[in-house]
Amino acid sequence: MKQDAKDKLKIIMSNIFKVGLSSINDDTTMENLDEWDSLAHMNLITTIEQDFSIRFDDDLIEELVSFKNIYSHLKEAL
Questions:
Q1: How many whole angstroms separate alpha carbon 47 and alpha carbon 12?
Q2: How many structural domains is the chain composed of?
Q3: What is the pLDDT of residues 62-71, one digit of tens each?
């Protein structure tokens, strides 16, 4: 299941940021992906919450600025 969630997260991020799947990996962050701006970030968080039926704490949302960090918190929520 965990690998499925990781793959699903990669697909979501690829779609939101309009980049190829190969652009999304453990090293992807808001700093190194130009398409990841504040508007895209909110779209990303909303989409993740809807697709995985979870809710991130409002305080946490601003910290979710890397694939690795998002995936880590996603695993905890599932």
A1: 7
A2: 1
A3: 999 999 999 9
